[in-house]
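#dry-run=false #mode=assembly
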Amino acid sequence: MSQAEVTMGAHSGLMEEPTFSVPAKKMAMWLFIIADSATFAGCLFAYGFIRNATPNWPRPFHGITNVAVMTFILLTSSLTMLFGVRSAQRGDKAGAFRWTMITALAGILFATLHIREWMSMIAEGANLFHNPWGTPLFSSLFFSITGLHLLHVTGGVVALIVVGLRYQGGRYKADDLEITGLYWHFVDLVWMFVVPLVYLLNLAH
Amino acid sequence: MNTAEAQNHGAKKDLVVYVCILALAGIQFLIAYQDISVSQMFVRMLVVAILEGALALLFFMHLWENRGLKWFVVIFTVSVILGMQYGWTDSFRLIDGAPWAK
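#status=ok
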C-alpha cells in the first residue's frame, strides 16, 4: 500500500493520477531535462548563427585523439550507469553502488581530460576574450559551451556520489538511482551534439 | 520470461544500443575528415547526432516505454528547435550584407 493510500484511507480515489503515469520525482527530472535541453539548444543555435555570420572562422583543432577518448569515456559511462540501475532494480545493492561509482569515476576522468585540454588552449593564448587563431568569438563560444557542459558533468559526478552513498546506506531507493541516471544520460546526449558542432567542424584540414 | 531473464535481456539490449551509438560517434569522426564543404559536413554530422540522441533518449532513458511522455518530449523539443530556426535568416543577412561579403 502506498503512503498516499495509508494517509488518505477510503479517500485515496480522490488522489490524481500522476502525469503520463510517471512518478512525481521522475517527472520533475524530465521537466528539468526539457528546460535544460532548451538552454543547450539556445547556446548551440547561437553558436551556429555566429559561426555562419563570421567570415574566416578559425579551425584550430589539429587532432581528434583527445575528444575521441573523452567521447568514448562519456558514452561508456552511460552504459555503466544503466548497469548500476539494473543492479539496483534486481536488489543487488553492492553491484548498483559499484557501477554508480565507476560511472562517477568516468565522469571525473572526462572532466580531467577536458580541463587538460582547456589548459593547453589557455597556454596558447586563448581565453574568453582573446583568440590567437582569429575572431575572439570562437574562444568565447568554445569556452562558454564546453564550460556549461563541464559544469553539468561536475554536478552529475557530485550527484552520483551522493545518491550512490545514500542508496548504499539505505536512505535512497532504486528509483532515486534511476532518476540520477536520467540526468547522466542527458549530459551524455548533449555531448553528442557538442562534439560535431564545436570540435569536429573546427578541425584543421 | 521471469525477472532474471528480463533483466538479462535488458542488459543485452543496452549493450547493443551502446555499440550502435559508439559506431555512430565513429561515423561523425570519419565525416570530419571528408573533403566536403562545411555546410554538407554540418548536415551529415547533425543527422548522425540526431540518430545518436534518439537512441539514447528512447533506450537509455527508457522513453520508448512511455508513450505519453515520449510524445510530450518530441512535440516540445521539435517546437523549440523550429522556433530557434527563426534566427538563421538574420545570420545570413549579416554575412551577405556585410561590406566584406561582396
